[in-house]
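Database export, one record per block. Field names are fixed; values are copied verbatim from the stored entry.
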Amino acid sequence: VNRSAVALWQLGADRLREALARLTQARTLAAGRDWSHAIPLGWTVVTTAEGLGERRLEAAALGLLAECYAETCRIEEARLLLHEAVAIYRAEPWAVGLADALWNTSRVLRHVGRPASALGPARDGLAQAELTADGVRQSRALLELAEVWQANGHDEKALATFQRATAQARLCADRGGESRALGSVAAY
């Protein structure tokens, strides 16, 4: 279906909509862990967005690429891409995009053994997520903050934030988020 959308936008010479359709396609490929196709497609979107001057689209594609790189253990590249995405979102404010970029930044820093550095992005990511109406994004940001508190040895703050993440996931009927939060508490 998405390939048809790309083809239609190509025929109509609508480069912006074509790039948006390609970003959706890259996200689908990344969700299926098809990195060899998702990454080049993500870079195509970055190039198109730069050419069109569409900074938010560029930042969204950089964020997707960072997730792909983090998943394939290319951590330093992921960190640099996220740094650029955060800078774009701060210059072109968009709470959803900034929340996602900060969440990813925190995850990357935590996974490379820099939990103290992850605390700022985790807190900022939650603050941005709370500016949105997206309860799933909020519960995900809470879960990341809880894991950062845990990694920094702040047990009471971690447990309280895990509880908030669980409650938020329940509130928005996010069974996957609730399961992840409860699993983290159980493992803790």
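Remark 1: The two ends are 42 Å apart (CA to CA).
Remark 2: The CA atoms of residues 73 and 140 lie 21 Å apart.
End of record.
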